[in-house]
Structures are given as structure tokens and as C-alpha cells.
Design brief:
- The chain is 31% helix and 21% strand.
- It contains 16 helices and 24 strands.
Amino acid sequence: MVICGIKTTHDGALALIDNGKLIFSFEMEKINNGKRHGTFCLSMKEIENILKGFNYAMKDIDKWVLDGWYPDQHGDEVIIKNIPFLFENKTVDIKLAQYGRFMQNETDALDCQSYRIDDIGFSYNSYLHVSGHIFGAYCSSPYAEKKEDSFILIWDGGMPPQLFYYEYQKNKISTIGPLMLIAGNIYIGFPSKFEPYCHQAGDIAIAGKLMAYIALGEEKTEIIEAYKEIYKEVVAEMKKDVTDPSYVMDITTNFINGAKKYADTHQKKDKNMLTSLHAFLQEQLLDGLDKYVKKNKGFKRNLCFAGGSALNIKWNSAIRESGLFESMWVPPFPNDAGSAIGTACCEMMLNTNLRSLDWNVYSGPSLSTLNAEVIEFESYPCSLKELANILHSTNEPIVFLNGNAELGPRALGNRSIFAAAVTPNMKTVLNQVKNREEYRPIAPICLEEDAPNVFSPGTPDPYMLFEHMVREDWKNVVPAIIHLDGSSRLQTVNQNQNKEVYELLTHYKALSGVPLLSNTSANFKGSGFFPDVESVVQWGRVNFIWSNGMLYASKKGVSIIDTQEILLKAYIE
């Protein structure tokens, strides 16, 4: 069965699954430097061209599946207007399944809504938005491959953290319950009331920034206890029925307002309010999980975690280290970037005998062809050994573009900026290159076999989704990748996962004795990953670009003679 999944709204995407194998997933932000979190914007002709690139045609699609979303403001029906994918010169309005803000026990997560646009003869299915997260997480997990049951925790921006349990043999998903009645968008709404984010209200990027910023504050017991009381009072005062779509959102808003009032009344420092919020939410998560795991002692202690909140590496690590679960899985696309995959997985689960998705994280768009006539860089053939020598010799950041783009929001080597991590100022350099706040951390990308020597725990983490602490004897060796609290957002690499990056790191280790590099995403600010070398040239913030065996050196920023000498030296060695 060939299934085409579409996420039409926020974080629009197109994904294709053929008999349980993910062929591709294209997020709109990764096409032509699209804006982050953009809506679906492909015409029918563009979809046809993408399919053709993978040797598929429109007639090969057995089922179109669209992700659910919020109800229309006029009622319970979800209607998304002016979607362009059916025609070149006109748009259509489409109906979708709902979001699933607060799942009730009787709600079936695999309840399929079928629709047809009669005047064009287009039929499609739609599933709850939360269902896409549930099955995108489970089907991509090792538990599906091993035919095991699993708890599934979903905490997305428009819903509270909800716990489910999937039974493989029965193909049955059960709703266990919410861990608390606070929506995931609190990580955006709450800091908008405090410095330094009170002038950035509504900016989705705040969530990622806050995860780094909380290292500047302190967890204060009295603030955390105040949060508990405010939350208890807000829930007690809520008069609405839990099935009301605004129930959880109103609790979240009232909690934020109550916390702001408390901070003003007691003159609490903004940074401590933010750090303590993170600690409070983490405690609520762990307490809720502990309660339900104890209540369901006979259940298999696997956990899948997805939704936008699963990008929080500190929460992920706290859950993994809690001992509540034997094993934990977070996909590299836990946020809405994975919703096109997830909604297609719903269809696969309901209408085939397949449960496990065969997938690769490097299934995004391939690099666009370079137009050599407009590039303003000198180009050279450059092996990965030679590139390692340039990184070691120049202390310059290098944009590394290779193969297909990564799925999800984090650069995992194929659309990255690499740099040596051995100088303290490299974090500053990279944050200036990226035009972002100085407190933002830079991630390490490390050879998997060497990670335990440098990091604690240093376990394999190929998708940059967990926190690791830098070991004491390495802190002075790789200062650029150490966050303010001594942690790092580690990505490990082995030869099977990404052979080019693995080879580069191996050569770099041979030269420097260091098995890792600094790694951050290569993109225009507010856009997805660079789709081609020309975009990096237009960006103009680095002197070196490496792509598919070629090195491009800026004629303005780097001495061409020096570059040639470095390449010659590496070749001779």
C-alpha cells in the first residue's frame, strides 16, 4: 500500500510510505529556504515532480492522508482554507479530523475520518493530530520492530501531556490519562511574561531559547512550591467540562497569569522564575509517569515520547534516568515536522498488517544543483581527509552539505556548520555567525566509540535528543561545546549512520586527538536548512563550504594561496 501523508498547517510537510518503508519526507521549511513552521505550499505539479524524482507517479498513490488540526472558530468542524496542492491556478478548502487536545477513554486514536471533494473527485482520510504523534513515534521505534508493547507519552503545544499504551498483538491503543492539565505551549507563553522574552510574545523560537537560558537562573524551592499552589487553585476554580476544547488552554493561561502576579508581588528574579518553571514542569511529568506506571504494573516498561515538548533534552534525560522505564525512544521528528509521517503511519496501522516503519533519518530533500556561473568562491576537489586538515589548521567554521537533508528540526551532519571545539571562543564565533544570543549552546558531534570517554553517560544518541555531562578531564580540551551548566546536547555517529561524517571525524581525531567537532545548523535565520551551496554563498557568513567532495573557499575572506597550501599539505601527509 502506497500512502502519501500531508501536514497542511503549521510545519507543513509531505511524506511517502510504500509498504512500510519511508521513501521521503519533505518539510516545507527545507525546500528553497522556506520559513520555519510554514504551512503546506506545494502545488499538484510540484508534488508530481517530487514523486517523479523517486520513480513514483500520482496514479501509484493508494491513499492520501491529511493530519488533523484545530476546529474552526465557528464550530466543531475543522476547515482549512486555500490549500494549493490540488491545482496550479486555484486553491481549495479542505476538511480535517480534529486535534485531540484532551483524549477521552472512549476515543479511538485510529478513528478515521473520510472526505471527498466531489467536484474534483479527490478522496482522502484524516486522523486526529495527536494520533499522528502517537503512531509516528511508535512505528519508528525499536519496540515496533521487536513487536513489543509500549507506553506512549504525547505532549504537544495544544494539549496537556497525555499517556497512552499500545498493545502490539491486539493493535490496540488505550488512553491512560493526562499527567497534568497544562498545555505544551506554556514553554512559549510563560517566558513571554518575563525578561528577556517579554518583547517576543508569540515567537515559537522562545521554547528552544528557554531550554538554554534556564542555565542562567536558579531553581528556588519557594517558587516551585508557589507554582504547585497556583496550579492547584487554578484547576479547582475551573468550571468548564474537561471535554471543552478550551479547558486545558484556560488552565494554562490562568496559571501563567497567577505566576506573573506572584513574581511581581514577591519581587522574584525573572531568570529564577523561568528556571523554577522548568523544574516544576519536570517534577509534574515524573510524578505523573510514576503514578501511572505503578498503577499499571503488568505493562511493558517501554516508553515512546513525542510532541513538541519531546525536543526538550533535559526532560528527556530526566525521564530516561528516572528508572521508571527499561527503555525510552524519542524520534528525531517528535514535533509537527513528523506529522506527515505520523498521519501516514495511522493509515498503515489501520489498513495493513504492518506496524514497524522502515526509515532513515536522512530522508529529506537532496541538494539542489550548483550553478557554477554565479558562485563567488574558488572551488577545489577536497577529500574528507583534506577537510579534516582544514578544520584542524584554520580554526574556521565550515558549512558541510552532504546528501539528503535530515528529518526533524536538528542538523545531524548533512546540513551542518562544523568547527573545531578546542578554543573557548568558538562558541562565540558560531553564535555570531548564526546571529543568535551568546548564551545559546553549541552541540558536539562525536564518534560513537569515543563518546563514553568524553561524556557521561556517553551512550549512543544519534539524534541529539538527550543531555550528557562533559567529563572533568575533557572540559579544558573541548570548551566550545560545553553549556553554562556543564552539559552538552550530544550527537553520536557510527559508520552505518553517516559514513561521510564518521570518516571526517576519524581523520580529525587522527590529527588532533579529539574525536568530536562543534556542530550547529546551516540555515538562514528563521528558515530551514540550506538546500544548496548558492544559498550559503548568498548568506555570506563563512569562508569555507564543503559539498559532495568539493571545497568552496571565499575569494574575499580567505587567501587562496593558503587554502591551496593546506590542501597540498593534507595530500602529502
